[in-house]
Structure formats: structure tokens, C-alpha cells
Design a protein that fits this description.
By secondary structure, the chain is α+β, with helices and mostly antiparallel strands. Helices cover 27% and strands 23% of the residues. The protein is built from eight helices and 16 strands. It binds flavin-adenine dinucleotide. Flavin-adenine dinucleotide (FAD) binds next to strand 3, helix 4 and strand 8.
């Protein structure tokens, strides 16, 4: 790491030193993502409390330090060169509380835990409650937005606010938290009354998705009424490979990491798929994957 980056990382470490949590200097991000790709963050911080998460965001904003929050890392692609700033991991923030009309969970609470509590529509979706809210995660059976009562966030002016669902601007795989990069500090959810066994749903995913290799799920949003995977397949790109990144033969909207894939390989395949689909169908594929630049 260059001396300038090292100084930046050390001063960031000092900025956070009084906050309850664990700090790792120059920590490679690949192990914290389902893609298993990504160079080191200056500092990777695991806050022990939601207040520490909010305070870390506040300080990074004040000092103009680039920052990102991650949960399960199931929808992110970090550069091979890493992230010159602060990455905050919500892994410790997993508290759950019963409410009269549902549950309240901290952002790191796993989606699989929500499924166990009855949110069957998200069966098989990896990641955290915070990431699910940001991405408005969903399956063909429904999205998390239909169950959100309210979300606690930190507004750009530094106030903690409780946004009711209608103010979260949920849309297909997006929300105000994704658009404006607002932290999700907690979420209130109502749970469906109908309880469904999820074994069939998981088996269906096992059959249709390449779950044997690291990936970040679907790379592109489906254009209105058409599957992006079908378009990529029809454009002849199933199985296309750059380095160890490959467009899955099982599901062409997945790029899988065969072992040593780098972010640059994935980005080349993304560009190839977009060009091929545009050439064949005149459609521009937009990204569902969160590509993070350094
Ligand atoms: C095999 C596989 C299958 C998948 N299937 C589906 C599917 O069926 N449906 C679907 O919707 N998704 C699917 N995904 C994608 C992923 O599971 C979802 O997008 C999930 O919601 C990501 O949660 P996460 O905690 O991993 O988010 P991360 O990847 O950690 O983060 C995603 C985004 O949210 C931000 N973020 C995370 N936590 C916070 C927070 N607390 N506050 C503010 N910002 C935050 C990050 O900065 C980033 O922009 C799949 C992924 C994989 C690997």
C-alpha cells in the first residue's frame, strides 16, 4: 500500500478508535462478499452497536471519507484495487425484537432468519435485512417492501429518522436507501399470516441457479416483461468466459467465479453482455449488481 494510503488508513483508524466495535486495517474484502472478489479496504469496521454504526457514518460524512456499508456482501462487486476508505460491516448487529404488529430487526439480521420467522417469499435469498431493504430484495413471489412497516435511517443532516414504508421509495430492486446511499439502522416488518414450507422453493432455486460457485446472484435487472437471462442466452453469451469469470450455463443472468476471478474480468463480461443484447435486441441492460468504484 502506498504511503499516502497508509496515512489515510491510519487516520481513519484514529477517527473510529473510541467507537465500540472491531477494526481491521487494510483488510481484503473478498472473504466478506459472496463473489469472493475485492481488494483491501483502508479500514473494515464491525460496529457492536447500531449507535456506533450511525456515528461512524456521521464521522465519515463529516470528514468526506468514502464509506460503504455491507451486510452479507451478496450484491456487491468491489474493485481488485480495494476501497480507499471505510467499509462498515453489519455482521454484529443481529438483534431482533417482537413488536405488537411484527418484528424489529437490526440491519445485520440474516434474511434466512426472516424466512424462519415466516417471510417465506425471500426463501433462498442470501444476505442481511439491511441489504434486503436497500435492494428491495424479492423473488417472483414478492419483495420485502410489501412487509416493511418502517425503516430507521440517518438523514444527510445527521438526524436519525423513522421512515414509514411509503417514504422508502421502493421500486424494482431499489429504494431511497440505494438511491441516496442512506444507512439502514433497523427495520420493522410485519410477517405474512400464511406460513409456507420453503423446501420446494429452495429446491427450485437449486435446480435453476448455479449455486455451486461464488456469485452475486442476478447481475442485471430484467427489462419490463423479459428475463435478462433469456436475452443474454439468445445473444449467444451463455458460457462466455473472461479469466475465471463466466456467464453461467445454468442461468445466464449469473456471472460465476470459477476460482480466481477478478473484478476486471466480471466487468468485461458485463460490458460484453450489454453490447451483445443491445446489438441483438436494441435493449440496454441495467445493473442490479452494485458495482463499487474506488
Ligand atoms: C446465489 C444468490 C442468489 C440471489 N438471489 C436473489 C433473489 O432471488 N432476489 C434478490 O432480490 N436478490 C438475490 N440475490 C442478491 C442478494 O441476496 C440481495 O440483494 C440481498 O438483499 C443483499 O443483501 P446483503 O446484506 O448481502 O447486501 P450487500 O451485498 O452487503 O449490500 C448491497 C447494497 O446494500 C448496501 N447496504 C447493505 N447493508 C446496508 C445498510 N445496513 N445500510 C445501508 N446500505 C446497506 C450496500 O452498500 C450495497 O449497496 C442473490 C444473491 C446470490 C449470491
Amino acid at each position: 500500500m502506498a504511503a499516502e494510503s497508509r496515512d489515510g488508513a491510519l487516520s481513519l483508524l484514529r477517527l473510529l478508535e473510541d467507537l465500540p466495535g472491531e477494526r481491521r486495517l487494510e483488510e481484503p474484502l473478498a472473504p466478506y462478499t459472496t463473489f469472493r472478489i475485492g481488494g483491501p479496504a483502508w479500514v473494515l469496521f464491525f460496529p457492536h452497536t447500531v449507535e456506533a454504526l450511525a456515528e461512524a457514518v456521521q464521522r465519515a460524512r463529516r470528514e468526506d471519507i468514502p464509506y460503504r456499508i455491507i451486510g452479507g456482501g451478496a450484491k456487491v462487486l468491489f474493485p481488485d484495487t480495494g476501497f480507499p476508505g471505510l467499509v462498515i460491516h453489519t455482521g454484529w448487529l443481529r438483534h431482533i425484537q417482537e413488536m405488537e404488529n411484527g418484528i424489529w430487526v437490526e440491519p445485520g439480521f440474516p434474511i434466512s432468519g426472516l424466512v424462519k420467522r415466516g417471510l417465506w417469499v425471500l426463501a433462498g435469498v442470501p444476505g442481511s435485512a439491511g441489504g434486503a431493504v436497500v435492494m428491495n430484495a424479492g423473488t417472483r413471489y414478492g419483495s420485502i417492501s410489501s412487509y416493511v412497516i418502517s425503516v430507521q435511517t440517518l438523514l444527510p443532516n445527521g438526524t436519525v429518522a423513522m421512515l414509514p414504508s411509503q417514504e422508502c421509495r421502493f421500486s424494482y430492486r431499489s429504494s431511497v436507501f440505494r438511491e441516496k446511499r442512506l444507512p439502514v439502522l433497523g427495520v420493522g416488518l410485519r410477517l405474512p399470516e400464511e406460513i409456507r414450507p420453503v423446501a420446494d422453493l429452495l429446491a427450485e432455486r437449486q435446480r435453476t441457479q448455479p449455486l455451486d460457485y461464488p456469485s452475486a446472484g442476478c447481475v442485471f435487472r430484467n427489462p419490463e416483461g423479459i428475463s435478462a437471462g433469456w436475452l443474454i442466452d439468445q445473444a449467444g453469451l451463455k458460457g462466455a468466459r473472461v479469466g475465471d469469470a463466466k456467464i453461467s450455463e445454468k442461468h445466464a443472468n449469473f456471472i460465476v467465479n470459477l476460482g480466481q476471478a477478478r473484478a476486471t474480468h466480471v466487468l468485461s463480461l458485463i460490458a460484453e453482455a450489454q453490447e451483445a443484447v443491445y446489438r441483438s435486441f436494441g435493449l440496454s441492460l441495467s445493473l442490479e449488481l452494485e458495482v463499487i468504484s474506488s
